[in-house]
Amino acid sequence: MIADFLAHGVGGRQDLPVPFGYALAGALVALAATFIILTRSWPRSRLRGAAAGRPLPPGLEKVLDAPATRIALRVLGLAFAGWVLAEMLFGPQLGRDNAAPGTLYVWIWVCMPLLSVLLGPIWRLISPMRTLHAGLSRLAGQGPDRGILTMPQRWGMWPGAAALLAFVWLELVPPDRGSVPAVRLAFALYAAFTLLGALLFGSGWFARADPFEVYSTLAARLSPLGRRDDGRLVLRNPFDGLDATPVVPGLAAVVIVLLGSTAFDSLSSAPQWISLTQGSGSKLLWDTGGLLGFVGVLGACYAVCSRRPREFAHSILPIAVGYVLAHYYSLAIIEGQRTFILAVRGGRDTGLVVLDTTLANPGFVAVLQVVAVVAGHITGAVAAHDRATRVYPPGKVMAGQLPLLLLMLAYTYAGLTLLFAA
After folding, report:
1. 310 contact partners, CB below 8 Å, separation of at least 6
2. How far apart are CA 78 and CA 331, in angstroms?
3. Angle formed by the axes of helices 251-268 and 211-219, to 10°?
4. Quick check: helix, strand or coil at residue 225?
5. Minimum mean pLDDT range among 5-14, 241-250, 303-312
């Protein structure tokens, strides 16, 4: 089973090069200073969104966009899904000896979105559910975009937000979440939800409802590699990619679920929460209530402070990604290696293998946690300010985004405090 204590990383307050109070104060000052500088030096919008980007060299773009490349990625995704299925059905049935739990909770949930920040929307390219649906559509003699029904536009990303909430509940709450039966059930429900939805509404369902694709695609908005609105693959300023995030219903809900669930994961590992819930006799209910409470309170605060939740939801995305990196970095390094060893050895002799912890040095992890959280908030502040110059009249740009700045300051304070609480 995944080692829960690794979710926080191996760094702590004592590993910071300065006292935690100084680091926290510095983070708050950096964010406030960013806001002041932006209001004085950035009077009008500078971001071009989906129209921005320098095209890749024609030869490289041709290779990356070639049908053979796309087919190879689809085959790779199917092979990966087949291996996971075989591992769940025929591999060791103890969670600590089976690679499937680590594949789900580390490789797919943690590593894949972080890699998407570097390489683009990975899951969309390798998704086995997309490939299966495309094959079924071809057998039925119709295009994959067509479904039996038309998905209402007002749904937006709400199905994806609901699916993400269901997944983070599975990841954080049930005591047997790392067992092979639990992981097997999770994959079965995921496959049924995404594939049946696509058969009903067409392949557009994946972009709005597949929790892994929704997460990966949003994280890829921060990638320097993207696609311009004319279809060209380009190198771009990540701020432009972030600005190009479609303003659709449910977008804010997706981002708040990501942020709230990671924050609750920090709280659930704190000694005070563990003592409270274990002594209550109903830990499952406490953890469920805590998760829903965190997501609900953060969502309500964001809705009030942003005033226009859809317009500014993209500015919360880098905060969520930064916190995910800070929170799960050492989990990805340590448990990612362990999962790979289990996959290669089929669960045999893993106890004899010494994992390389060089990249999970406590001092480095502690600094990374602070830098990732602060960088995420500063990036969010820049994105929010540029959007505010378009949304609010010139004389009200500063006042219009002040409540959101205060919320970001509160997020920074609470995020770092929770991160180092355990």
Report:
1. 247, 248, 249, 251, 252
2. 26
3. 100
4. strand
5. 5-14
